[in-house]
Amino acid sequence: MTSLSVPSTLSRAVEFPIQCGLTNRGTVPAVSSRLRIYLSTDNRLSSADVLLRDWSIPALAAGASQSQTVTEIVPAAVQPGSCYLLLIANANGVVTESNQRQQHDGGTGHSLTAGSGEPEKPIS
Questions:
Q1: How would you write 44-113 as a 3-class SS string?
Q2: Burial status of residue 71 (CB atoms within 10 A of its CB: 0-12, 13-18, 19 or more)
Q3: In the list 14, 19, 36, 73, which could disulfide-bond 91, CB 3.0-4.6 Å?
Q4: What is the CATH number of domain 3-114?
Q5: Cα gap 54→67, rounded to integer Å
Q6: In this structure, are strands 65-73 and 50-57 parallel, antiparallel, or unpaired?
Q7: Distance of alpha carbon 46 from its chain centroid, rounded?
Q8: Calpha distance 10→7 (Å, rounded)
Q9: Strand 33-40, strand 50-57: pairing
Q10: Cα dist. 23→16, 44, 91 in Å?
Q11: Is 41 left (phi over 0), alpha (psi -120 to 50) or beta?
């Protein structure tokens, strides 16, 4: 993951875009893999986190980059407050990597506020 762009404030049950840049920093092509996007109360993946998207990423040539954008919705059941988007590259483990920790982008996850569905009046 080389870039990530999401709105700083989200509202429950309202669509929002997620744009991310992916780069194969290796010297050989990378096969098609999965990118999973989770909503979490902290920056660590756990079974309590909400899976928002399990996304197919096309194969990438060595040194190639691509940008991907999806539209997501914060589930209405999510409680307002601070939360993180966790993006897990190569979530299905099919791409051999020299550093497996690079695939978990929890450290880069953005802190977000899940509002009420009315962006101008977030729930406190």
A1: CCCCCCEEEEEEEECCECCCCEEEEEEEEEECCCCCCCEEEEEEECCCCCCCCCCCHHHHECHHHCCEEE
A2: exposed
A3: 36
A4: 2.60.40.10
A5: 16
A6: unpaired
A7: 14
A8: 7
A9: antiparallel
A10: 23, 23, 15
A11: alpha
The position carrying tokens 């982008």 is: 105
Q: Mind listing the pLDDT tens digit for each residue in 60-89? A: 999 999 998 999 988 888 877 778 888 887
Delimit the domains of the chain by residue range: 3-114
Q: Which two tokens mark 37? A: 């996007």
- From CA 99, how far away is CA 76, in angstroms rounded? 36
pTM of whole model > 0.70? yes
State pLDDT tens for residues 100-118: 554 454 434 445 555 544 4
